[in-house]
Amino acid sequence: MVDAHDTLFRTAFQHTHTIRALLAWLLPAALRAAVLAGILEPWPASASDRRLRLHHADLMFVLRLSPRLAILFVLEHKSWADRKLLRQLHRYVMQVTQSYEDAHGGVLFVIPVIVYHGRRKGWRLQWSQSDVAMPSELRAELEAFLPRLQVVFDDLMTCSEEELLARPLPAMAILCLLCLRFLRKASNAFVEAAIARWTPLFERALTEPGGQELVAAVSSYLLHVTNLPAEKVVELFQKTVREHDPEFIMSTASRLRAEGRKEGRVEGRVEGRVEGRVEGRIEVLRNQLEARFGPLPEVLGQRLAAASLEQLDRLARRVVTASSLDAVFAD
Q1: How far apart are the first and last CA of the chain?
Q2: Which of 3, 114, 137, 171 could be joined to 204 by an S-S link, Cβ 3.0–4.6 Å?
Q3: 57-71, 104-118, 292-306: least confidently modelled range
């Protein structure tokens, strides 16, 4: 199911000019120069098996350096700390590389680009550890044999609003990143003030290719990730784009009112409340575990972070009577 984050992200970065600017900002100097000088093309769905994609919303662009050498950039966003992501990326890179080289010959390099906007600040990609208990010295030895995968990682949660505004990107790309970084579950007052501050960005975005589509996507995004009623979102965008095409304003307002009545908005809010409950329970349970047993080992911390509400309930019951961490987390 495509969610509000997917829709906004794809709308902003499906265009060559936005993805080129983002890559130029994130990549090392030599690769940046190649991206700016070369022809960056969307990777057609027919070029690889759809089953090889990470999921339905990933964006892929190819830079052909020569008839036998190409770079495939895979652009993904992550709204949560997925502990299995690095393994999935490694499997994906190997599969798509083999598929390309079997079909076309030559060499394909795959560079994953991850834009992270989850709630866990400071999250870093790492190989998920085995849940099987093993001596610490053996774990250290085995980690030396883990495959290495270089990933371009853009952690929005470490960026201030000023830093994102200063990035040399098209206005529609900056708007997308700002929304992902700041608007999810923000207070109504914060959202209204932010939209007002970002009015110059909206005005610039509306003059860019794909800008109207992006502004419409931002308006829908507000309906799905904030508590603003549809009429308030309509009012905000009428003020923000008041100097633009009146027909665009009217069509946007009509669509927002219709979307505000859809069941999907209710489902999005329910999902958000569940996510918040899980994160809160994890924090409380971690404090309880560390109060009884001391610092939580990394592997158990990862299991705790990935637990469902049902699993958290079971762990919470065990922490009261269990004599050890192994007893709490026993299958």
Answers
A1: 31
A2: 171
A3: 292-306
